[in-house]
Amino acid sequence: MTANEIFQALQADPQNQRFTANGIQPLYHIEPHAKILLISQAPSRRAQEKLMFWDDASGDRLRAWLGVTKAQFYQSGQFAVLPLDFYYPGKRPHGGDLPPRKDFAAKWHAPLLKLMPEIQLTILIGQYAQKAYLIRPPRTLTATIQQYQSYLPTYFPLVHPSPLNYGWLKQHPWFLETVVPELQQRVAVIMDNN
Predict the structure, then answer these.
(1) Which residues of 60-99 are buried (b: 16+ CB within 10 A; e: fewer)?
(2) How far is Cα 164 from Cα 13, in angstroms, rounded to an integer?
(3) Predicted model pTM
(4) Tell me: the pLDDT tens digits for 88-126?
């Protein structure tokens, strides 16, 4: 299937009918020559409304961790984004976003990944992405990230860069001291070689 055929199929899928009926488009970003793939939970409400992923404080922090500029992130053709669900899932009754719909990624990631055969590094942002892609990840996000080297060179697990995770970052200074520099180095090598 072509990129356009997949986009049309997504919108026509009965699973997405309520979104399509309300004029809401699926949000993801593919690049035919992308080398770095970001997989995360689902678009935020703001991202869905603007049709622009990672254009917020979380995105600024993510780009700092990657060691890239906004222009490199959006315009280099090296980055692709596939959330586990391409639609904002809504809010939980007691705060926080609902999780991505089950089986959505299993249905739609594979045909999109076929269109991006040059991916060299897949960055798994948050526990949902890690559970979806890693075989038997540790029970906690912290343990997964502590063991990040065991998933290289294919996957690089990260905590979500949300301001809500400031506490986690403060409690785990090794993440910024050790993990982020290696991430930046790997991203720089990939970017420099293309």
Answers:
(1) ebbbebbbbeeebbbebebbbbbbbbbbbbeeeeeeeeee
(2) 33
(3) 0.94
(4) 998 887 767 889 998 999 999 999 999 999 999 999 999
